Amino acid sequence: MPAPPPDARSFRSAVVSVTPCGDDGVLLRIRPERELPPVRASRFFMLRREDALSPAIPRPFSIYRQHGHELEFLIKVMGKGTSALAHSVPGTHLRTIGPLGNGWPTLSGGGAPWVMLAGGVGSAPFYMAIEQALRGMDGARPAALSELHFLFGAARSGLLYDVAAFERLGVRVHTATIDGSHGHKGNVLALLETLQRSGTLPERLRVLACGPERMLEAVASWCDARGLDCWLSLETLMGCGVGICNACPIPTRREGPRGAWPNVKCCVEGPVFKTDEIALHTLGH
Ligand SMILES: Cc1cc2nc3c(=O)[nH]c(=O)nc-3n(C[C@H](O)[C@H](O)[C@H](O)COP(=O)(O)OP(=O)(O)OC[C@H]3O[C@@H](n4cnc5c(N)ncnc54)[C@H](O)[C@@H]3O)c2cc1C
Ligand code: FES
């Protein structure tokens, strides 16, 4: 039975700052009451305010950045839980559970380039992924700047959250917006194809993606058709985050490495899955 990660804890944090970001987002910086070792990119924390403003069920958020003792999250305001967090003030107390989940695979240098596809707030798990790849992960060879391509897509420029921060990391940042207000006009997959046609990106790639489910489905089938290795970080609805409530089932592929086991739990077995493991298109829509 998959279990929560052994380093996960429930603890209290104090809000340090809440800074508006993009049209409908905030950067939420918190100071946990206990110091955390470096967290792998694309792991997540469950957050809720300790007062009655937050729903009883905490909400999951990818770690965006870690600054010494402090954690930062990039949060798009969707409903009650995210709104309560966005209206926090310095000193507001948050119940914090984590770090949870598995995180991205090791982003080693020296192979096919890594292409990171982000849709809107799906950019959150990529900032530290880039930092960690450049530094070198798990004893693997560090990636060079030229081996990392960050493709950031959104409906409009105001939803390309904190894009300047990604540019400052020094990697190649390519943007796409549906309304053409920033970068390529179209979606992030069309941008990827354009970059391949122009010779900026080769045919052989290693792909990571995070964003809305429809985008991830499209990315998964695009990579499947080309036989490319692809990992998705899923933002499924969650309840407990620790494997108890069964709110986060993801259907598996019968022919995949999970075999006949019909579902995996996104919270404790993900949120990152390789596309040959899961069957996104069978999720309920
Ligand atoms: C592992 C993981 C990491 C995540 N990381 C981030 C992050 O870094 N930044 C961020 O802003 N969000 C992230 N999310 C999504 C975030 O958890 C939800 O947006 C949040 O739970 C919404 O809570 P709410 O109470 O504000 O909205 P609710 O009141 O619960 O819902 C408001 C509306 O949003 C829809 N909704 C809620 N959650 C989701 C979702 N996950 N996907 C699509 N629609 C949804 C609901 O169906 C409803 O229509 C992550 C989710 C997961 C599972
Ligand atoms: S969120 Fe409760 S089991 Fe995954």
Task: Describe the secondary-structure layout.
Layout: E1 9-21, E2 25-32, E3 44-49, E4 59-62, E5 65-67, E6 70-76, H1 80-86, E7 93-100, E8 114-119, H2 127-135, E9 148-154, H3 163-168, E10 172-177, E11 184-185, H4 188-197, E12 206-210, H5 213-226, E13 229-233, E14 249-251, E15 263-265, H6 266-269, E16 272-274
Parallel strand pairs: 8-9, 8-12, 9-10, 10-11, 12-13
Antiparallel strand pairs: 1-2, 1-7, 2-6, 3-4, 3-7, 5-6, 13-16, 14-15
This protein binds flavin-adenine dinucleotide (FAD) and FE2/S2 (inorganic) cluster (FES).
Structure report:
The model has no long low-confidence stretch (mean pLDDT about 95). By secondary structure, the protein is α/β, with parallel strands linked by helices. It has helices at about 80-85, 125-135, 165-170, 190-195, 215-225, 265-270, and strands at about 10-20, 25-30, 45-50, 60, 65, 70-75, 95-100, 115-120, 150-155, 170-175, 185, 205-210, 230-235, 250, 265, 270-275. Strands 4-3-7-1-2-6-5 form a seven-stranded antiparallel β-sheet. It folds into two domains: about 10-100, Translation factors (Elongation Factor Tu (Ef-tu), domain 3, Beta Barrel), CATH 2.40.30; about 115-235, 3-Layer(aba) Sandwich (Rossmann fold), CATH 3.40.50.80. The chain is globular, with a radius of gyration of 18 Å. The longest helix is centred in the C-terminal third of the chain and has 14 residues, at about 215-225. The protein binds flavin-adenine dinucleotide (FAD) and FE2/S2 (inorganic) cluster. The site of flavin-adenine dinucleotide (FAD) has 22 residues, from strand 4, strand 6 and helix 1. The site of FE2/S2 (inorganic) cluster has 12 residues, from loops.
